[in-house]
From TrEMBL:
Its cofactor is pyridoxal 5'-phosphate. The modification N6-(pyridoxal phosphate)lysine is found at residue 344. Residues 116-332 form the Radical SAM core domain. InterPro entries: Aldolase_TIM, Arg_2_3_am_muta, LAM_C_dom, Lys_aminomutase/Glu_NH3_mut, rSAM, rSAM_sf. Gene3D superfamilies: 6.10.140.1170, Aldolase class I (3.20.20.70). The keyword Cytoplasm does not apply. The keyword Nuclease does not apply. This is Lysine 2,3-aminomutase. Its EC number is 5.4.3.2. It comes from Sporosarcina limicola. Pfam families: LAM_C (PF12544), Radical_SAM (PF04055). [4Fe-4S] cluster binds at residues 130, 134, 137. Keywords: 4Fe-4S, Iron, Iron-sulfur, Isomerase, Metal-binding, Pyridoxal phosphate, S-adenosyl-L-methionine.
Amino acid sequence: MTVCKEKGNELHGIYESVDWDWDDWSQHFRRRIQTLDELKKYIDVTPDEESAIQKSAGIYKWAVTPYYASLMDKEDPNCPIRRQAIPSLEEFTTYNYSDVDPVGDTKYRVGNRIVHKYADRIIMLITEQCPVYCRHCTRKFHTTNLNGTYFESSESESYEPDFLYIENHQEIRDVLLTGGDPLTYSDTKLEKILKRLRSIPHVEIIRFGSRYPVLLPQRITKEFCEMLEKYHPIWLNTHFNHPKEITKDSAKAINLLLTHGVPVQNQSVLLKGINDDLEIMKKLLHNLLKIRVRPYYLYHCDNVTGVSHFMTTIDTGLDIMKGLVGHTTGFATPSYVITTINGKIPLPLNTVVEYSEDGLILKNYQDKETSLPYLTPKDS
Ligand SMILES: *Cc1c(COP(=O)(O)O)cnc(C)c1O
Ligand code: SF4
């Protein structure tokens, strides 16, 4: 017998009638859209999208969860969900300075899965699988490019050498599990990793980088959160880019994580034509606060081969930040950063107008100036 459910994104009035359990994440994963015919059930595919999908064959992976596809605008090819998930012909234009790995993950890798770029923290790339292959992925070479992988041997290779590396480096206090998307692994597999990490006394915090709350929120089950709870402190950073991605299902996933003591923060990427607009960005940030997600980073888009067309200028990013800082809740405002071969570099607003002999002149968010004289003893 099949269960028939009327589900989808009620916020946008898109309903998909399915004869399988919409709340079962493994079903979404198994039923990911990977063919044109399948995609056509959700949207009116444009000729450009169609040729980009054909051109991608053998070059770039693409897959979309039925959930994420249900958020797509059927008619509008500029829909932010479509732009993030459906291949475009622009991916095949190469630009100057673009590189498959401009941030230097390979330069800093110290083992099969570990990238050690900052002294006190590492990332562990545990899988190259994702529920949706985001067209703008910074690790496009690693996740989406069919020729590319950072895994020296295989993804299923023993973790023990990686754990030993952490064990032998007392300075590592923060381990970030990422990929690909680590939540693609089963709870059992993830628990093994967490348990082993927790046997290393100097590992203080463990964090996940996962886009599942956005791309397949059904993955965040009560059982999963109860498992995480045993290994606290666990943090999770996710990746919402557009207000349309904040739905009842994603809010429910976030609520489960928070209820089980996992703080959730957001890392957006500034993407041309998707969120490079003050009003859209503000709405995204405000809606994140409504579901109790703390905006953490706004990444300047990296010049990754196949991704460059999503880049804005840094001035665009700074203008958006100028429209946010002081104009809205302090903790609605992420840090705007650019990832480089030398690490993440903040791109702050310049608030110092002048360094004079007597002190500094600062300006506030309305460009109102304040002078701050240097401290001098009053009577001497
Ligand atoms: C982003 C990143 C981290 C974590 O950086 P935070 O600024 O602490 O969030 C760690 N290692 C690598 C290689 C990274 O790219
Ligand atoms: S989920 Fe994350 S790692 Fe996977 S394709 Fe999207 S941005 Fe890249």
